[in-house]
Amino acid sequence: MSAQCPACYLHALVPVHLLQREDRSWRQWDEKGAPPAEAVTIDTCPVCFGAWFDQGEIDALGDGAVDALLRAQEGASAAPGAGARPCPRGHGPMFELRCPALISTPLDRCGACGGLWLDGEERRRLAAASTKEGQGTRKERLVRRGVIWAAQLLTHLPVEVENPARGTPWLVYALLVAYVALFVASAEGLVYYRDWAVVAGKVVRETSSVHTIFTHQFLHGSWLHLLGNAYFLHLFGDNIEHLFGRLRFAALLIGAGAFGGLMHTLLTQATATPMVGASGAIAGVMAAYLWSFPHAKLFQTVPFVLIQIKIPAWVYLVVWVGLQVVMGFFSQEYEMAWFSHLGGFVFGLGMTPLVLRWRRRAVARNVTVPAAPYARADSR
Ligand SMILES: [Zn+2]
Ligand SMILES: [Zn+2]
Q1: Domain segments of the chain as ranges
Q2: 143-177 pLDDT, tens per residue?
Q3: Class for domain 170-364, per CATH?
Q4: Do residues 197 and 219 lie in contact, with contact meaning Cβ atoms separated by under 8 Å?
């Protein structure tokens, strides 16, 4: 199915085929070609992690009678409001279905086809409820049934489903190669570092060095500087390249780098020190990530195995921006380009909502809404 995600509208739903193992747990079928007939196919959004279940799919996955439970709750739910999410099968607005025995937040269910939408955050909360601590003292049979279903479905969903990066981030790779090549070239004396670096005092005086506002982002001062930037570009950049598209991603990097260079020129006190590095451009990518995936857990999107803490992206990035502001205004370390980081971040915050609006329109134009595979009438 290729309907638009009813929650974030940023991506077409992607089918995920699940196969049951001998021990009744589920694994993702990821080979090429058509999946086996016994596979259960759910539709997920790779941007917001939400998932769509056609009627019957939840019971097929959890061997429970969750559908019946949900249907029993339907009488109590109000008609869909103005802001209701549309059924991805094309049946118009869905009901907000309250089902406190399963989860505290309302679920979205289509009255016509009986399909169910679970937000990424709802899936996570159900998964949390399936741990011993999450269950607490609640003993109701219905809760347990919901929890068992959630545990089976969610704990065995492969990690790949949670990772919003799709496809190969070629532009990120190309940039990484370019950074290394230019670093080696400048170390070998083939490229003269001073021709590319922003020297704030010089840019203000000489029009011949204005180009450095654009060029400084491709050079790095040391291996450590290069490795740090490469890590963060790869961490945040692969998802943003996919979400923005290559051309807009390139515009984001160049724009954020240049705007950062400009802010550095206007605000820094280190007017004679050359400044290089992709940090400003990458700060723009971080802003785009913060705006687009605020709830993404950082250890889930990276194989950052050494650190086992799980923090939402927005916490990490708000702390990071705070640090740049404090250091920019109070630090004596003028060689660090705090204002370049802040400028790049501001550029990213400005550009991202525009790109996301374009993206929503483009996805809406390009998806088709397939017919429902289940007729609702025979199940009532
Ligand atoms: Zn979505
Ligand atoms: Zn429907």
Answers
A1: 14-162, 170-364
A2: 555 554 554 454 433 333 344 456 788 999 999 99
A3: mainly alpha
A4: yes
